[in-house]
């Protein structure tokens, strides 16, 4: 059987395409094929890019035969890897920044594997991509990889209390976090989460992917807090619910605060969360006392906001007033 040596490169590129010249240098004597992988962790349009969000630190490359059986696999702690495989029609799958995926004997095996949110960190976001092609001694391919996480951000918080008793009362931001967080997702598709984090409230303490950690930020009336906070979660397409008993529901961005020493919450319900999308609250305007629970809906008379959904591909961006 004819054997082909594939050299795989992975890089998170802002450009929308890659050229053959940059993707392939062929050595006919060795019958090598350079499989150039550009990861258009897509060009940010209106979305500000954060350092590390398109970094590729390690890759795993899988090559599958037409019948779905594994043909070749390799892993590298850099952005390139060489895979020796046979010629023919092949499905090529690349997973970036993930722990080793072992025991894969077929494409269906890999499609059933699940990524955990805890395996992500800024600068090490899990990504995946796939393509099909006929591999020959002169083949080259671009396999874009896309982040499996979504990003949820809040850029500005300001108080504008309508009732006099709140205007002179100390207002302190105690924390910002996500609730009802999907904690897992298949590497190659979207599916219903089997793991949920921060169910209906703060369960995970300390700063992390979806929690600011403890804060103590006093806001004077009309003075905005303009330090942006960025959080990451996996896709969540669940129907929303405000039931007292846990059930899958929309992800919420919660500002926990105190007014005159009394804890209150300003939950902002996100739309459907999709992978590789950003959801940005450009401003939360607080005008009232909020709610007694992160799961209680807040009256529009207490706060206002909107969510700008943009693909990071884009998700959502907008203002909230509560």
What does this structure look like?
The chain folds into two domains: 3-147, Immunoglobulin-like (Sandwich); 150-321, Immunoglobulin-like, CATH 2.60.40. The chain has three helices and 22 strands. It is mainly beta and 322 residues long. Strands 10, 11, 17, 20, 21 and 22 form a six-stranded mixed sheet that branches. The protein starts with a strand and ends with a strand. Residues 13-32 have low confidence and may be disordered. The chain is elongated, with a radius of gyration of 23 Å. The longest helix is centred in the middle third of the chain and has 5 residues, at 107-111. 4% of the residues lie in helices and 42% in strands. This is Major fimbrial subunit protein N-terminal domain-containing protein. Belongs to the bacteroidetes fimbrillin superfamily. FimA/Mfa1 family. Keywords: Fimbrium, Signal.
């Amino acid at each position: 059987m004819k054997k082909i040596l594939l050299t795989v490169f992975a890089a998170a590129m802002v450009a929308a395409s890659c050229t053959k010249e940059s993707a392939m240098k062929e050595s006919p004597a060795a019958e090598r094929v350079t499989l150039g992988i550009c990861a258009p962790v897509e060009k940010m349009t209106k979305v500000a890019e954060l350092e590390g969000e398109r970094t590729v630190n390690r890759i795993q490359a899988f090559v599958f035969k037409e019948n779905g059986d594994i043909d070749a696999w390799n892993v590298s702690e850099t952005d390139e890897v060489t895979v020796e495989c046979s010629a023919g029609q092949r499905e090529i799958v690349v997973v970036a920044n993930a722990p080793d995926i072992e025991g894969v004997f077929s494409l269906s095996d890999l499609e059933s594997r699940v990524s955990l949110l805890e395996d992500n960190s800024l600068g090490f976001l899990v990504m995946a991509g796939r393509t099909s092609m006929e591999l020959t001694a002169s083949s080259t391919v671009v396999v874009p990889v896309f982040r499996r996480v979504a990003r949820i951000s809040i850029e500005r918080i300001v108080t504008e209390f309508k009732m006099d008793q709140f205007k002179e009362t100390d207002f302190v931001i105690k924390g910002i976090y996500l609730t009802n967080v999907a904690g897992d997702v298949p590497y190659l598709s979207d599916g219903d989460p089997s793991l949920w984090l921060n169910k209906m409230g703060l369960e995970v303490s300390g700063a992390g992917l979806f929690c600011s950690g403890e804060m103590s930020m006093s806001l004077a009336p009309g003075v905005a807090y303009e330090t942006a906070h960025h959080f990451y979660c996996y896709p969540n397409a669940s129907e929303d619910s405000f039931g007292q008993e846990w059930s899958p529901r929309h992800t919420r961005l919660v500002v926990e605060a105190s007014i005159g020493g009394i804890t209150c919450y300003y939950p902002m319900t996100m739309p459907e969360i999709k992978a590789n999308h950003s959801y940005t609250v450009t401003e939360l305007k607080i005008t009232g006392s909020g709610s007694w629970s992160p799961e209680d809906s807040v009256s529009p008379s207490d706060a206002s906001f909107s969510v700008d959904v943009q693909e990071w591909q884009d998700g959502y961006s907008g203002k909230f007033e509560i």
